[in-house]
Design a protein that fits this description.
Number of helices: 13
Helix content: 25-40%
CATH architecture of the largest domain: 2-Layer Sandwich
CATH class of the largest domain: Alpha Beta
Largest sheet: 8 strands, mixed
CATH topology of the largest domain: BirA Bifunctional Protein, domain 2
Domain Aminoacyl-transfer RNA synthetases class-II family profile: 133-432
EC number: 6.1.1.22
Shape: elongated
Subunit structure: Homodimer.
Keywords: Aminoacyl-tRNA synthetase, ATP-binding, Cytoplasm, Ligase, Nucleotide-binding, Protein biosynthesis
Structural class: alpha+beta
Oligomer: single chain
Main location: cytoplasm
Number of domains: 2
Order of helices and strands: EEEEHEEHHHEEEEHEEHHHEHHEEEHHEH
């Protein structure tokens, strides 16, 4: 007997196979039992017809409880009525692991309840679909950067200094000195770019921000490319090509997940058209002020309502260029003709999803960088290795960071970033 996974059903139509699965739900009439089965790859239906199986099989099918693990034997057939397109005509059932009083029932549950049971909530069809899209974005990320000759480098998670100041860092004891959980691998990626030319990292980052917005997590994953001999405009082209590649990959490979989530493919298809629009920070402030945002003045950072309005004005991901120097980190390259802004850009996702990428060209002048480190109240000795990069063959270089969970949230069309990571860490949540 061949054992297959549900996702492989289309290749076995007309064959009798065995599938290991869990019973997500069931319903029955007097003569037919309908089993909603899942195995981690997909969900589909098992049909048990009383007249076609031994009495004990039909009795067992009717008595199966939610999330009982089973081995199902039966014939794969097409099912044009379902989105998945296939089902199994069940001939035998073996119970592998019973489930009693499963807490997440088909009824409505509150968010706190679901988050307390996140270890079980992941089994639901919606959460499964979101994680499938997350997985595709991860797979496509490696494909994109490997195809473009980037080398993956893993920066440390424990660091002795901070790229953007220590205010929002988690501090820990590192034997006889202080250490911090990384808020970004960027500084290390700059060192790697000087060794390998084009590099990227992909790992967890930590921000001790006391924020409760739908866009914030305490622990999240970042993709951070860094490129030597690269100016900002060239970096922007890589960024938009990368994002368009992710969108197209989700469209090509996540049909089932998009169906489950009800995500409109025609909307996503708009985000594969390049180039993405660009607007300067100056013009963005003017745009907001001319449209009733009296709370914004030049020099302010943009909040969620501001980013949403700007993105909606273009109906595509949009780059906001050259923010004020005072609200950006110390390492950004100064503008060649203005002292008040730096060469940087944020990519704002449409549909109200906010910033998904932050990037810049990096300062290359040793004396300027040293001055900035001192001006930001940072310890020069802690950054001596970083300054070395400007002493030994400094070159123009640029990079960016894409937040994985925000991108998953956007492409999935869901409301809150907490569903975009398997086990979210929030301001008041570290369980489970």
């Amino acid at each position: 007997m061949k054992q297959i996974q549900i996702i492989e059903a289309k290749h076995h139509v007309g064959e009798v196979v065995q599938i290991g699965a869990w019973v997500a739900n069931k319903r029955s009439s007097g003569k037919i039992a309908f089993l909603q089965l899942r195995d981690g790859t997909a969900f589909f239906q098992g049909i048990v017809v009383k007249s076609e199986v031994p009495e004990e099989v039909f009795t067992l099918a009717k008595g199966l409880t939610q999330e009982t693990a089973v081995l199902i034997t039966g014939e794969i057939r097409e099912d044009t009525r379902s989105k998945f397109g296939y089902e199994i005509g069940v001939t035998a059932i073996e119970v592998v692991g019973e489930s009693q009083d499963y807490p997440i029932t088909p009824k409505e549950h509150g968010t706190d309840f679901l988050m307390d049971h996140r270890h079980l909530w992941l089994r639901s069809s919606r959460q499964h679909a979101i994680m499938q899209i997350r997985n595709e974005i991860i797979r496509a990320t490696y494909e994109f950067f490997n195809n473009n000759n980037f080398v993956k480098i893993d920066p440390p998670i424990l660091t002795g200094s901070a790229p953007e100041g220590t205010t929002d860092l988690f501090e820990t004891n590192y034997f006889d000195q202080k250490a911090y959980l990384s808020q970004s691998g960027q500084l290390y990626m700059e060192a790697a770019a000087m060794a390998f030319g084009k590099v990227f990292s992909f790992g967890p980052t930590f921000r001790a921000e006391k924020s409760k917005t739908r866009r914030h997590l305490i622990e999240f994953w970042m993709i951070e490319p860094e490129m030597a001999f690269t100016h900002q405009e060239e970096s922007l082209e890589v960024q938009e090509q990368y994002v368009a590649f992710l969108v197209q990959s989700v469209l090509d490979n996540c049909d089932y997940a998009l169906d489950v989530l009800g995500r409109d493919r025609s909307v996503l298809e708009k985000y594969t058209t390049l180039p993405f629009p660009r607007i300067s920070y100056d013009d963005a402030v003017t745009l907001l002020q001319e449209n009733g945002f009296e709370d914004i003045t030049w020099g302010d950072d943009f909040g969620s309502p501001h980013e949403t309005f700007i993105a909606n004005s273009f109906d595509q991901p949009v780059f906001i260029l050259n923010y004020p120097k005072a609200i950006k980190p110390f390492y950004m390259k100064p503008h060649p003709t203005r002292e008040d802004v730096v060469i940087c850009a944020d990519m704002i996702a449409p549909e109200g999803y906010g910033e998904i990428i932050g990037g810049s060209e990096r300062a290359t002048d040793y004396e300027f960088l040293l001055e900035q480190i001192k001006a930001h109240g940072l310890d020069e000795n802690e950054y001596s290795w970083y300054l070395d990069l400007r002493k030994y063959g400094s070159v123009p270089h640029s990079g960016f960071g894409l937040g994985l969970e925000r991108t998953v949230t956007w492409l999935s069309g869901i409301e809150h970033v907490r569903e975009a990571i398997p086990f979210p860490r929030l301001l008041n949540r570290i369980y489970p």
